[in-house]
Write a structure and sequence with these properties.
Layout: H1 20-26, E1 54-57, H2 59-62, H3 68-80, H4 83-86, E2 90-92, E3 98-101, E4 108-110, H5 128-136, E5 140-146, H6 153-156, H7 179-189, E6 194-198, H8 210-215, H9 234-251, E7 258-262, H10 269-276, E8 279-281, H11 290-301, E9 312-314, H12 330-342, E10 347-349, H13 358-364, H14 367-374, E11 382-386, E12 390-396, E13 402-408, E14 414-419, E15 431-435, E16 441-444, E17 447-452, E18 457-463, E19 471-473, E20 481-485, E21 523-524, E22 533-535, E23 538-540, E24 543-547, E25 550-555, E26 562-569, E27 580-586, E28 589-593, E29 604-609, E30 615-622, E31 632-641
Parallel strand pairs: 1-2, 1-10, 2-5, 5-6, 6-7, 7-8, 8-9
Antiparallel strand pairs: 3-4, 11-12, 12-13, 13-18, 14-17, 15-16, 15-18, 19-31, 20-25, 21-24, 22-23, 24-31, 25-30, 26-29, 26-31, 27-28, 27-30
Helix pairs in contact: 7-9, 9-10, 12-13, 12-14
The chain binds alpha-D-galactopyranose.
Alpha-D-galactopyranose binds near residues 95, 153 and 264.
């Protein structure tokens, strides 16, 4: 029998867990200890964002010209218009609320000229009356700060009347040097429930720069370079945010907080945001332009495996109501909302809700789409069909039914064929559809032709007979997968993210290209470089694509009997020279491994008994030197069976 056909797998034995180190040295590939199954689920929620946070944010509506009347007006509208009932409960202050840091004790002082209720009789300031009022309305309160010393407005809104004032030290309103003090004040004393932590302080205040000199700031050596991934100090940035995470845990004994990391996709936050925050921005600020919306959406669409209950990819607050998403562009506004809901994105309205037309209110209030966004399984939609013009996005709901969005990216009408197989539903059985905008019901078998208006997205709930009647493909449940290590050693910009216009400088900017590390990250139903799967010529429609030296956790909670996959080195690998060994751990015990597999070896079938197991871990390991290209591996047709 040729070696490739031998099913040389180890079956679980109780003694194997103790024998782990021996077993690893017995195979020819190296396996570093960090890639040994952990045995515990590391994808637990950070804070209280079991579903994507919903509410309102002041920034796109008012920038720094925020004040108490505007915010309380929004809060009142959330309640009066029924939005709060739908889940829009966070009322989040963005930049502009602060006056200065008091030097005698480092305490942050609120700008009471715009937040009068913060003035206390003893001459102090406190946001407690403000948060008390929000809480009494059944809402929650959010605040904003920066991870460095200075905030974004102090670099980009220099005209603003609401910039921090006083000496250079008094104007250092960011967390640097004050993490525990500020977090204690905001959450312990003032009672906030949510914090957005921006990062301009680590990017824009280089000592000696024109900004620092002209404005008399003290300056901080940048740790983030927006246009140069290699100059950014990922570890330092992560360390700062992790310190905030620890302070938040300590200041919130009930863990009822949301931690929004706002470093615009920098510092490889894609890979660690989920371990530190409840949500993390994936890209630059959204502007009210179609191309900017596309850009921010594209920055999250290939990252489904990194999100899940308690931690979310954040394409930014909504711009519905303004510019190309205003009441004269309702198709575009509905598309913006549909895409955010499919992506399990935080839904933060950022519009002056004191005067919102019913046409816009009806978009935010689409209860069916809110349900799609808030589904408890937390499966971000994956892309079932992708082109420059049209995308088909499919999201598996907690009940294993599907939501499908068919999206026309172009300014012309298009006709699209929607296939039952794109939904992983059988094409010989009827598929029932409900249009989540028009509420119309329909049915098709096999294939349906849909005509979309320019920029239109149609979204349907879909039910039919599942291709996998007695289980799920892993790519259907990205919310139950935690990418503990994706094997990316050298963060590289993702070239597939649609280039946005530079909203700040237009054509004078020299066309700045996005620099969001993410290329090579683990993907559902695609290789890490966006190809279809193929092992020695055998193609797979479904699977998980990842680099070698990776560890993926799958939360099964005892619900399945068998894990099955066909594994091997993908034909598309840039490095065909290294053998890869595949391992499966269940609750920390090694239960299956392959022999080392080379490029060109036929796929091997893994069948592992996972009855009663809660955390399954998929490890692939190769001896790859630091300066070598990575090896692309495929967990083809990976599935869990009941
Ligand atoms: C940055 C953030 C925005 C907003 C502004 C405030 O640009 O990305 O979301 O908070 O700062 O100045």
């Amino acid at each position: 029998m040729p070696l490739v056909a031998v099913m040389a797998f180890v079956t679980a034995t109780p003694g194997l867990a103790q024998a782990k180190p021996l077993r690893h040295s017995a195979v020819s590939s190296t396996l570093s200890p960090s890639l040994v199954g952990h045995g515990v689920w590391l994808g637990a929620p950070v804070g209280a964002a079991k579903t994507p946070p919903m509410g309102w944010n002041s920034w796109n509506a008012f920038r720094t010209e925020v004040d108490e009347d505007k915010v309380m007006g929004a809060a009142k509208a959330l309640v009066d218009e029924g939005l709060a009932k739908l889940g829009y409960v966070y009322v989040n202050l963005d930049d502009g609320w602060w006056r200065k840091r008091r030097l005698s004790d480092g305490r942050m002082i609120v700008r009471t000229s715009i937040f009068p209720s913060a003035a206390t009789p003893d001459g102090n300031t406190s946001f407690r009356p403000f948060t008390d009022r929000l809480h009494a309305m059944g809402l929650k309160a959010g605040i904003y700060t920066d991870i460095g010393r200075n905030a974004c407005s102090q670099a980009f809104d220099l005209h603003s009347p609401n910039l921090p004032e006083g000496s250079a030290a008094e104007r250092e309103v960011g967390l640097d040097g004050h993490v525990e003090q500020d977090i204690g004040l905001y959450f312990g004393e003032w009672g906030f429930d949510y914090i957005k932590v921006d990062a301009c302080g680590l990017a824009d205040y280089a000592p000696g720069s024109a900004l620092v000199k002209d404005n008399g700031y003290i300056g901080l050596k940048p740790e983030i370079y927006r246009d140069a991934i290699n100059r950014t100090d990922d570890a330092a940035v992560k360390k700062r945010y992790a310190r905030v995470a620890a302070a938040l845990k300590a200041a919130n004994p009930d863990q009822d907080y949301v931690f929004s990391i706002c470093d615009w996709g920098m510092a490889d936050v894609r890979s660690w945001g989920k371990d530190v925050g409840s949500m993390w921005r994936a890209s630059s600020d959204i502007t009210p332009n179609w191309s900017s919306m596309l850009h921010n959406y594209d920055a999250v669409t290939k990252r489904a495996l990194y999100a899940g209950p308690g931690h979310w990819n954040d394409p930014d607050i909504l711009y519905i109501g303004q510019g190309e998403f205003d009441a004269d562009h309702l198709t575009e506004a509905r598309t913006h909302f549909s895409l955010w809901a499919m992506m399990s994105a935080p839904l933060l309205i950022s519009y002056d809700l004191r005067a919102a037309p019913s046409s816009l209110l009806s978009i935010w209030s689409n209860a069916d789409l809110v349900k799609v966004d808030q589904d408890l399984a937390g499966n971000q939609a994956t892309i079932a069909y992708d082109s420059d013009d049209v995308q088909v996005l499919v999201k598996t709901m907690a009940d294993h039914n599907k939501t499908v969005a068919v999206f026309n990216r172009t300014a012309s009408p298009v006709t699209v064929a929607l296939l039952a197989s794109q939904l992983k539903l059988r094409d010989d059985a009827p598929v029932e559809l409900v249009d989540l905008w028009s509420k119309k019901k329909s049915q098709f078998k096999g294939q349906l032709s849909i005509t979309l208006a320019p920029h239109e997205t149609q979204v349907f709930s879909a039910s039919g007979e599942r291709e996998l009647a007695d289980g799920v493909y892993l790519s259907e449940i990205p919310g139950a997968i935690n990418v503990a290590d994706d094997g990316v050693k050298t963060p590289a910009p993702d070239p597939t993210i649609h280039r946005m216009i530079d909203p700040w400088a237009g054509t004078t900017s020299g066309s700045v290209h996005p620099q969001y590390a993410g290329w090579g990250g683990a993907q559902a139903d695609a290789t890490p470089y966006g190809q279809g799967f193929q092992i020695a010529g055998e193609a797979f429609r479904s699977g998980i694509g990842v680099l070698s030296n990776s560890l993926l956790q799958v939360k099964t909670d005892g619900a399945y009997r068998t894990l099955r996959a066909r594994v091997g080195v993908d034909d598309s690998t840039p490095n065909p020279g290294r053998a890869v060994t595949f391992y499966v751990y269940a609750d920390g015990k090694l239960i299956t491994q392959t022999p080392p597999m080379k490029f060109g070896d036929k796929a091997r079938e893994i069948t592992a008994d996972i009855r009663g197991r809660h955390v399954i871990e998929l490890v692939s390991s190769s001896a790859t030197a630091a300066n070598e290209q990575p090896v692309v591996v495929t967990w083809g047709s990976a599935q869990l069976l009941k």
